[in-house]
Design a protein that fits this description.
The structure holds two protein chains of two kinds.
Chain A: E1 4-13, E2 16-26, E3 31-36, H1 42-49, E4 57-62, E5 65-66, H2 72-78, E6 79-82, H3 94-99, H4 114-126, H5 142-155, E7 160-164, H6 172-187, E8 191-195, H7 199-205, E9 208-213, E10 216-221, H8 223-226, H9 229-236, E11 241-244, E12 251-254
Parallel strand pairs in A: 3-8, 3-9, 6-7, 7-8
Antiparallel strand pairs in A: 1-2, 1-4, 4-5, 9-10, 11-12
Helix pairs in contact in A: 4-5
Chain B: H1 2-25, H2 33-40, H3 46-81, H4 93-107, H5 110-133, E1 134-135, E2 138-139, H6 141-165, H7 167-178, H8 186-205, H9 207-214, H10 217-222, H11 227-249, H12 255-267, H13 271-295, H14 304-328
Classes of the chains: A alpha/beta, B mainly alpha.
The structure holds adenosine-5'-triphosphate and magnesium ion.
Amino acid sequence: MSIVNVKDLHFSYGMIQALKGVNFKIDDYKMVGILGSNGSGKTTLLKNISGYLKPSKGNVFIMGKSVYKMRAKDRAMLIGYVPQDMYFDFEFTSYDVVMMGRTPYLRRFQRETEKDASSVKEAMILTNTWDLKDRYVNELSGGQRQRVYIARALAQEPKILLLDEPISHLDVKYQIEVLSILKQLTAKKILVFAVLHDINLSSQFCDFILLMKDGEIISMGTPNEVITAENMKMAFSVDADVIRNPITDTPLIVLSKNKGMI
Amino acid sequence: MKVKKGFYLLISIVILIASLMFSASVGAVKMPLKSIVDVIFGDGNSTDKMILLNLRFPRIIEAAFTGMGLSVAGTFFQGLLKNPMADPYVLGISSGAAFGASIAIVLGLGIFGLQFFAFAFALMTIYVVYILAKKGPYIKMQTMLLAGIAISAFMSSIISLMMLLNHDEMSQIVFWTMGGFSLISWSQIFYTVPIILIGCITLYVFSRDLNVIMTGEEIAEHLGIDTERVKKIILIVGSLITASSVSAGGIIGFVGLIVPHISRLIVGSDNRFLVPFSGIVGAAFLVFADTLARTVMAPVEIPVGIITAACGGPFFIYLLVKNKNKEVK
Ligand SMILES: Nc1ncnc2c1ncn2[C@@H]1O[C@H](COP(=O)(O)OP(=O)(O)OP(=O)(O)O)[C@@H](O)[C@H]1O
Ligand SMILES: [Mg+2]
């Protein structure tokens, strides 16, 4: 049985058709990159997989069960979601925010248990945020905040982790660090989906790539199969040379042909 | 951290008790602590009993519950609307109540008619605002805020017109809108206190959900919270609390705005502590303000809304200056 099976997914925001029949299956716990130009439907796809948005047509099955038929709490124990960007001006400590990840496990009047505390601590150590635990989230840098949100999703102990541009606020050190963390999660039997804009890092870190354009997947497969000059032209309208990264032996795109394009 | 918060809660309870005792003891007749305790336990002489049981206690109880209700509702509305300027009146409840009260005053309906009209119109107003902001199954908080402001402006203009056309009742309307507890007797308590108390407890049950919603509605949904349902419950219960407190005490401004703010500065944003703390502080503050209202210019009574605004205005300026400095830094 596939872990995730997306079947003929259609979604519209009013008149705007954001997904026009998306199909794919993922059978192993691995790291899946979602690439595509702005507005191609990446965020919409993630939100449909998480069950937050309901498709007009099609279905998403997780381990054989439709996400839209699950109870919200069960879904929250199965799927963690880190949104593209969020900021709020209230004073919650990082620890409190990560503890919110335990919400689906707590009954209304139940206090947090040892288990919840250890799960939070583990998530924070893994994302290198334990030092920030007493700091207010609204006073952190964008990158620190992003890692706190990843920790919160990990505290949900999900089987599937969906991240919308998880490294876009991070400096190069933390980009590598976060991607490495995400990659490690696959060994713990978590299926990771990450919307990424950095094609070369995706090539280096992802096991599988979905390339989107105008609400459809135009190519999917391993980085070797997807990251080709032809696909880059199709998805992003840029002329790229694809060479091999001599160190990682993965495809590497070079955009030197586009100097005068602006 | 937890210990510190528990300590704050304890302090707030001590302050509340002190405020209650202070309020019971001062007035035209000074009441020593011993007489108050005696009356509470069923002893005491008959004059003391008369003054405390018929005059001061109902007033103190109503002020305490109103202060608590407005502060708790204010805390929830600020969190839900993600707007520090929000208070229980921001969605138009107060202008609805004022409109109802004005009609009752013009029609000469007496105290119970007035309270009923204020209550009913407050709820009707919030319902209209709610309908305006509802889009399919979703409630847009920003639209709700704007609709509240629009409806308030509209109601206020009608109230002004009514005052213009009914000169004799004008002072009565003005007095009512500034708020006060001078007309309170046990009969008001029997219908407002249960609503406020049950309302506050109901809201408290959702304080963890509100924490998560404050960090983002979308994320709350992803954590298994039915945000639309929680929002609806908070709106309905918060409105009921506000409508019942307004119907008995009039429009008492600033309590529902500043008490949540001060409380947040002291205990932080975690609603599981903030809500009880803010409720207790609100009760203490309004009891104290009402005591000033009936004593500083005795025998003339000042509307309590004037006292709370006199405390609230400067505090608001302080907040603004503080925020401005924070941005500079
Ligand atoms: N709330 C919304 N209401 C209406 N249209 C929307 C909404 N959100 C997205 N869209 C539209 O749906 C399409 C897909 O948007 P989506 O956010 O999924 O793109 P994306 O691939 O995530 O883009 P980006 O890289 O900029 O984040 C776009 O045409 C966008 O304008
Ligand atoms: Mg996006």
